[in-house]
Amino acid sequence: MFFKKNPGKLDTPMDQFLARQDLTVDQRAVLDVYMTGVAHALAGTNAILKRNGKDPIYDATGERALQDARHLEALLEEFLKQRPDMKKQPLSVCAVLALLSRYPV
Q1: pLDDT (tens digit, 9 = 90+) per residue, 70-79?
Q2: Has residue 9 been placed in a domain?
Q3: What's the pLDDT band for 68 if we cut at 50, 70, 90?
Q4: Which residues, at least 6 apart from 38, have a Cβ–Cβ distance to it below 8 Å?
Q5: Mean pLDDT over residues 49-60, rounded?
Q6: Is 60 contained in some domain?
Q7: Structural domain tally of the chain?
Q8: Is 20 part of a structural domain of the chain?
Q9: Of 23, 46, 33, nearest in space to 100 by CA
């Protein structure tokens, strides 16, 4: 498992996200892999919504595009500034909520 439980350490993806400026190169690489995975999962969710005739969470092109994991990171940062209470929630949940708050369906 990428995120090992160590008292007082960065235990979760959210912990690593919040402390991303202070991460080592290896820790940052793990976070980047996680963020890329979240971005791919959101793209998959989009595809499923479209296939089922529903509006996608975001558009693949245009001003409502999610370009990459770094863009998702910026959206998450903005979301967590507005909703600091969400810092205790899983990072992937916050990613979905960040997209929904930025690009309402």
Answers
A1: 788 888 999 9
A2: no
A3: confident
A4: 69, 72, 91, 92, 95
A5: 80
A6: yes
A7: 1
A8: no
A9: 46
